[in-house]
Amino acid sequence: MISFCKLCIMPDSRPRIVFNNDGICNACTNSLDKQKINWEDKKKEFLKLVDEIKDYSLKNNLSYDCIVPWSGGKDSTSIALKLKFEFKLNPLLVTFSPLILNEIGDFNRNLLSKLGFDAIFIRPNQKVSKYLSKRFFTERGNPKVAWDAGVNAGPVRVAVNYKIPYIFYAEHGESEYGGLVLSEESKKKRDLREVIEHQIGDYPENWVNEEITLKDLHPYIYPSETEIKKTNIQAYYFSYFFKWSMLENYEYTIKKIPNFKTKADGRTKGTFTNFDSLDDKIDCLYYYMQYIKFGFGRATRDACRMIQNNQMTRNEGIKLARKYDDEFPVEDFNEVLNYLDISKDNFQEIVDKHRNNEIWKSSINNKWELINSI
Amino acid sequence: MIGLIDINTGNLASLVSALSKLNIKFKICKKRHDFESLNKFILPGVGAYDDFMKKLINLKFDKIIQKKISNNCSFLGICVGYQVLFNGSSEHGMHEGLNIIKGKFVNFIDENKNIKIPHVGWNECKLINKNELFYEIKDNSDFYFTHSYILKDFDKENIASKTNYIVDFVSAVNFKNVYGVQFHPEKSQLNGLKLLKNFNERC
Amino acid sequence: MLKKRIIITLTFLDGVLFRTKNFKPDYRYTKNFIDLWSIDELLLIDISKKKFSKNFLNTIKYFTENCFVPITVGGGIKKIQDADLYFKNGADKILLGTHDLEKSNMIEDISKKYGSQSIIQSIDCKKKSKNEYTVMTNSGNSNLENNVILYGKKALKQGAGEILINSIDNDGSLLGYDMQLVNLISRNLNSPLLALGGGGNWNHLLELFLKTNISAACTQNIFHFTEESILSAKKFLKQNNINIRH
Questions:
Q1: How far is CA B183 from the centre of its chain?
Q2: Does the pTM exceed 0.90?
Q3: Which position among B29, B79, B125, B203 bears the catalytic label?
Q4: ipTM of the complex
Q5: Which of A132, C69, C80, C100 has the fewest CB atoms within 10 Å, counting from its CB?
Q6: How far apart are CA C186 and CA A162, in angstroms?
Q7: Chains with 3 or more CB pairs closer than 8 angstroms to B?
């Protein structure tokens, strides 16, 4: 039996999410806690950190003050803009290439580049990337497992290589969206355990087989503990210092960069928003698989965030989830199939294999139905 | 049709699954008259020797088995079902077996007190005397063992395979139409399934 | 030579396969991707509140019918009738949770009927201080006693065949097995030993087999259950001279 959060609409099938005795998810309680936080104090703490960073750069003769893992999307862009123009730091942006690049991502990244940001774009070889995407789409219902490993490892690898200790991540997913928070400290500084255990769930080194060598896996393997200690890597979450809201990030970005592109035809498939997670053509499939595996889709995900930020009521969220959650990822579907090197029939077979019978039941006309829907 | 002797100890389910997977027809023998028209049998067994023999005797299966074997029926004993084919075992004190093949069972520790028992896991069977049970099974193939007692005072010509666990011990026997394996073929995946298939088709 | 084993450990909550962290279920998966041909042995644990449900018994049946390696089943066994039920439904061995050995004759009863080799006794351990561990019962919620080795010895004396060293702290973490705990127990108990809790990458498995005399490494990481993963792990171990099947 799946139950839904009483405040937002997230189901308890979301991996690692914790519901309290009142049936409220930890993302909502975190959101309520956010109201109680003294953000002024946090800002003071941040300013101290900024000074510390500047001192360090000066002492060590560094060209860049910090690393910002950057997709080109509204969240990481808003952080980059704030760090440079409000706090006068010089960030080095590091992007781990999307699996299937699209125009919007390229365009938006270019806009920021024109504003004066140096950026490193890591593009791992597509032979290995495609192979791993196919493997994990099949085995885990997630074509972005390796990408997750890469997007985590890449910026840290660059930090280690450039000897830059400071990294600014966007938000702490486990507390913002529901999950397992390992400690209070892990909301402020990135805990490596969360990367391995929650995000990837596995070690990339385990993926060595007849086709893939350890060298092939280099872009996906996290730098060693020794390297991290030597560089004294400190990865902070922006959401610890500043109240996090994806809508506000979007509005901030649009203000500073009026030409920032969003989804042309009004909204992304599977949801009602048009400004979130737009830079990879495979993302629609990624979120659709979330729907298949756990029973909630992109619309639920976006609605929950907006409900938590008082930008939408629960009822409004429910309507939108019911309307858009189950949308099939038709956008760029053939290109995605091509990338994964699977046929349409094979695709359907794999998708259905990931349906859990606690969440899905097969109804008349062989159609699938959610057992518990919001 | 193979008779699967069921004395209500341990689980027959694995063997049933294995035989089903191989499409081998079988009949579960729970009572004496179940044995009647059959001439090929498997006696699976887990648990203690004395307990197992007691159950066989109570059900009067001991006599039937001895008769069927002397009438040239093919027989495969698995684990304790193999051990009872012999003269006896020292498990929980001396207990007599079915006395079909010469030999008795002692604990691994009686051979070498440093051996960790039970012997549990995958181990290799080295073929000693060629026989139909191991037809097309590679030498030194792995099978799954779980036992603490091993055969002693046996006739060398009866050994089908031997295995090493600190000491060498007999892992399979073949005496005329009788076969016995210390390991569990129904739990030994492809090798085990092949062995059961061989028993059905060639023994 | 007896080979080292890798035992796939599956925990089920109301019939659904779940990963756990510190014994709490946190990530659901589907069992459609578990490869049953490359594994050495299977361990099924029911972590539901209501044990012996039809759901779980059907799950055991599913594996019995499709898997031809030994299956150990555990979850809520408190008396021999519970064990009977699991054996009847296809278990080859049963796993007993940490329980008060003074107050229960369960091990003796079960070993008399099914033999010692049918019993794996789990010792659920929690780190108390730098070098000390305590035995926990009730799914890791209550302290049972303070001497893990003594507990193990008592269980073996009562008739348990194998001992499972279960680290609560490392459960669900991918940071490796608790080597200190495993070493402590493997140096002091003379029975086949299994270790569970923390297996993340193949080096963890290697470390376990190289540095201790453990018989089997149990992994509960759901991403280790596909044929690809298992073969990758075995190849790695074989390349490092560990005697493993395949």
A1: 7
A2: no
A3: B79
A4: 0.93
A5: C100
A6: 45
A7: C
